[in-house]
Amino acid sequence: MAPVAASHAADKATHAANAASSQAHTAASRLSRWVEDNKNLAVALGIGTVVAAGGGAYYYFGTQSSKSSRRPKSPPSSRVGDDGEKKSAAEDTKEAESGTSAAAASAAKSKKKKKGKKTTGGGPSIDEGLKSRDGPLLEEASDESLFALSPEEIAKLPQERRVPLAQALKAQGNKAYSSRNFQEAITLYTKAIAAQPLAVFFSNRAACYSNLGKHRDVISDCNSALETDPAYVKALNRRANAQEQIGQDADGDKPGKELEEKKDLLYQSLCDFTAVAILGGFSDTGATESVERVLKKLAAVKAREVLRTREPKLPSPTFVTAYLEAFRKKPMPTLPENASQADQTLLLAFEALEARNYPHASSLFNEAVEQGPSTDELKSLAYNMRGTFRFIIGQATEALEDLNNATDLQPSYVQSWVKKASVHMELGDKDEAFADFDKAVKANSEDPDIFYHRGQVHFILGQYTDAMADYDKSTSLDSSFIFSQVQHAVAQYKLGNITQSTSAFRSLLQRFGDSSEAFNYYGELLLDQQKFEDAMRNFDRAIEIEAAKDRSRNVLPMINKALALFQWKQDMAAAERLCREALNTDEDCDVAVATLAQLSLQQGKLPEAIEWFRRSAQIARTEPELNNAITYENASLAQLQFIKNFPEQGAALSAMAGGGLA
Ligand SMILES: *[C@@H]1O[C@H](CO)[C@@H](O)[C@H](O)[C@H]1NC(C)=O
Ligand SMILES: *[C@@H]1O[C@H](CO)[C@@H](O)[C@H](O)[C@H]1NC(C)=O
Ligand SMILES: *[C@@H]1O[C@H](CO)[C@@H](O)[C@H](O)[C@H]1NC(C)=O
Ligand SMILES: *[C@@H]1O[C@H](CO)[C@@H](O)[C@H](O)[C@H]1NC(C)=O
């Protein structure tokens, strides 16, 4: 069993260190790991409704395409119930593409051929089966006068003439196709369609349009093919490719009708590729890769669009508090005797912060910056805090500008450098982040904040030994700051020293008996070791401590308890109840929403899962988080669409998911 709970500790650690990027990880990595870790469990529980299978299948797309190879190698035939006609239809395009089909070969014999000399001649064909099928038909139809008829005239022929003629025209079309005479092939398939509108003719003509880059014609022909044969995989695949081609250059930053259309096509492409992947029993890696590619594109476009249009909004108080408390408390700034209006505003802002009225604090800090406090020191503080809030809101670039001004005005103020390191990490620039820490050390080598936060960066990067050295340094400078000590114990656990980590936690719990964090993290480590009862006891204690607070309670212990109940007793209802309770306390708690989404998925409640993913997208703080939520939502939507479109295969899928994973 992979470390579910440890991932919490890690993510939560990350969180405290570098709130922004960590929170993105939290939602993303915690979830994907959770999904992965619990997949077998969920299936073992026998949650095997049709819809659940849709959810199950989703995991293969969203989190681990590589696993698709572990799927049963012989997928159930997606063409169950097909008659011979369809079967040959499925083969036909390949013939057209390869140019070695019996039909093409026999067609070559037809005197009608303009390019007879280029054909493979009448030699033995590769596919005897097809030859025996098409041969006789072709002879009946090899009347040149019929080939020359227009589609309209062909349509008027009696049925018994049209059927063999259609086959002959198709054979001719395939031949033209294999010689890459696409225009000619189109003419021939068009006549074949007039003779008999079989799905395969439409699909083959679509293949011609595809080669000519006429994507809209491809779509229209595939639509016709799929009308008669909705599970026609080749047509689905062609249509998906054409839709993707048109939607490819969708730009979320350029709103308008064109963007709407392209997004729509990308979504349809996703649905078609999803159907191809599922109908093919996930053995078609090309299809699963296509699903992921289109999903990625669609989510990126949508995320840009959302970021362009939405109002910046503070994340949940749990998140804000966690970030702010990762810095040791500072005294209130002292104002000069003749304090200006701006100075007063700044003080009010800090008071609002103290009262955890974050929206108010945020707007007051902004006001203070605009009014311009009277001293460099106060100006620097105002920039520092406005930058902090911008960072928390997800505006990393703007935050960096503010923090640059803060360090310019007061280079000796360590916290501004440390916060700059956070921002640089969020922007993916770890070298700059370490450079910021160096500057901070230069400003004051005895500030414990520096070492705690640098430890967190090492931790995120998996450098646990370096992280522990920094946590140690931080603790040696201030032993009252609990986070360095908690993280030290977690890093120890990460390095595999479980005994040492456990005894470190025991002593922390004695010294910080009123800190919910210590109980919560310790519970996570216990959960990771499957010590459910002990874990539960620690989560309960953490919940109790938080419940006694009158505002901005940390709800993470509740979510952890929910996960423990799910893993231990498979008690979905209780797990859901706890997550909902967490949401009552902190309505924007992204981890609660994400967990509810996954719990819904596990129970086969796809529509509910979709609602939760949508909500998750609404509260996502950063672009990667947003991307992640949208990806999940759209993947689930596409699968729901599949189950609606293909009820029978949906049932088969359910059986396969059970069989493949049990
Ligand atoms: C406060 O007093 C100092 C020293 O007299 C002066 O330089 C400064 O401009 C004054 N500030 C305000 C806001 O009046
Ligand atoms: C940073 O300070 C400079 C110089 O005072 C100012 O022009 C600029 O607008 C400030 N940046 C921000 C983001 O306020
Ligand atoms: C665990 O940590 C302790 C104390 O730091 C150390 O003495 C011990 O060698 C470590 N054990 C392992 C297996 O690393
Ligand atoms: C994909 O997910 C986004 C994110 O919430 C949603 O707004 C959008 O409607 C979905 N796309 C489609 C085509 O359903």
Automatic annotation (TrEMBL):
One Pfam family cited in the UniProt record for this chain: TPR_16
Extent of the TPR repeats: 166-199, 380-413, 414-447, 448-481, 516-549
Q: Where is the composition biased (Basic residues)?
A: 109-118
Mind listing the GO biological process terms from this record?
A: protein import into mitochondrial matrix; protein insertion into mitochondrial inner membrane
Keyword Signal assigned to the entry: answer is: no
Localization per record = Mitochondrion outer membrane
Q: Output compositional bias ranges, type Low complexity.
A: 98-108
What is a single molecular function from GO for this protein? mitochondrion targeting sequence binding
User: Where does the record place the region Disordered?
Assistant: 1-21, 62-134
User: How is the protein disposed in the membrane?
Assistant: Single-pass membrane protein
Give the record's keywords alphabetically.
Membrane, Mitochondrion, Mitochondrion outer membrane, Repeat, TPR repeat, Transmembrane, Transmembrane helix
* Record Gene3D superfamilies: Tetratricopeptide repeat domain
Q: Which residues form a coiled coil?
A: none
**Family to which this protein belongs:** Belongs to the Tom70 family.
Q: Give the protein name, as stated in the record.
A: TPR-like protein
